[in-house]
Design brief:
The chain has 14 helices and three strands. It is mainly alpha-helical. The protein has two domains: 235 residues, 3-Layer(bab) Sandwich (minor pseudopilin epsh fold); 96 residues, Four Helix Bundle (Hemerythrin (Met), subunit A). The structure holds manganese (III) ion (MN3).
């Protein structure tokens, strides 16, 4: 019975989550939620038609071609964003293009004004002071992005609102982005988004489009981002001290599984130093629990013991056992490795 209830709750949550997170290969061009001329005069019908039916369609087609028979065929669109740093340029650029444009069509409207009573409205006012200040910051981010790219309003891992821009088809979900979080409003500043109507005047396009934001859709994106498991994943992936410990753990434990104890005999002191740094560093909010704190303390205790065994030149079997139990403790924090 409990399993059934859990399943039903999970299915409900999954059903409410964004369309994007459910997407998998082969990806499809989503239906445009309005006619090509709906956003006139801010975006003219010709620009909208070319942007959607040529540019976005090409991203989807090229993404599928690049993914075909690659090891990334099984990745969701969000997973492709998360691990963009290891993707080839075709998957990264076309995957980003598909993700970003799918959001872009949905956050535009001439009939959904800013609502200070909405959840995102309250957050915008408390973060930026007013919607006009936010619009100014977004316009500035878009105007100062050299070449092609995007301006973003996104939810940080601390669940705050922030503004940034990205080059090409990158976005803040990507591990290659200096600013990390979940985008809830993205403005395309590629020339193909405005050149037919605004020519070289990107600033005029930005001023106009700030008054064509679908704030109801942004509010929905905001509320979904706050509870998204993706946000917690990004939070963990940006936990520097954990990543540093992981790097030494992976570089010593995996060779030991194949009987090679040289790496741990050389790096046990380094592993201990990384464990201590993890203990004294800031724990991200979602991970700041008594269980995780205990595991981190256990990591330090275990690393001290392991380092002492290495110093005393203990035999391979003893070292392997100590490292293996340390690895088990690590995974109560880290979760399962992706590789
Ligand atoms: Mn575009």
């Amino acid at each position: 019975m409990k399993n059934i209830i859990t399943f039903v709750i999970f299915a409900l949550i999954a059903g409410f989550s964004t369309i994007l997170s459910a997407q998998n290969y082969p990806f499809e061009l989503p239906k445009l939620p309005y006619a090509y001329n709906t956003l006139e005069p801010v975006i003219d019908a010709a620009t909208m038609e070319i942007h959607y039916s040529k540019h976005h369609a090409a991203y989807v087609k090229n993404l599928n071609a690049a993914l075909k028979e690659s090891k990334y065929e099984s990745y969701s669109l969000e997973e492709l964003m998360l691990y963009a740093g290891e993707l080839n340029a075709a998957i990264r650029n076309n995957g980003g293009g598909h993700y970003n444009h799918t959001m872009f069509w949905n956050i535009l409207s001439l009939t959904s004004p800013f609502n200070p009573q909405s959840e995102v409205g309250k957050a915008v006012v408390s973060t930026f002071g007013s919607p006009d200040t936010l619009k100014m910051l977004l316009s500035k981010a878009g105007a100062t992005r050299f070449g092609s790219g995007w301006a973003w309003l996104y939810v940080t891992t601390d669940k705050k609102l922030a503004v940034c821009s990205s080059p090409n088809q990158d976005n803040p979900i990507m591990d290659v982005s200096p600013e990390r979080g979940i985008p809830i409003l993205g403005i395309d500043v590629w020339e193909h988004a405005y050149y037919l109507k605004y020519k070289n005047l990107r600033g005029d396009y930005l001023t106009a489009i700030m008054n064509a934001i679908n704030w109801e859709a942004v509010n929905k994106n905001y509320q979904e981002a706050l509870v998204s498991p993706l946000l917690k994943t990004i939070e963990k992936e940006t936990w520097t001290e954990l990543n540093n410990f992981h790097e030494v753990m992976a570089g010593t434990f995996h060779p030991s599984e194949n009987g090679d104890l040289k790496p741990i005999r050389e790096r046990s002191g380094e592993l201990l130093a990384k464990a201590k740094a993890l203990q004294s560093g800031k724990i991200p909010a979602s991970f700041n629990t008594p269980d995780i704190k205990k595991s981190i303390n256990d990591l330090v205790t275990g690393s001290v013991k392991l380092d002492q065994l290495v110093v005393k030149k203990a035999d391979d079997k003893t070292i392997t056992k100590s490292l293996s139990s340390l690895h088990d403790v690590f995974h109560t924090i880290q979760g399962l490795c992706r590789h």
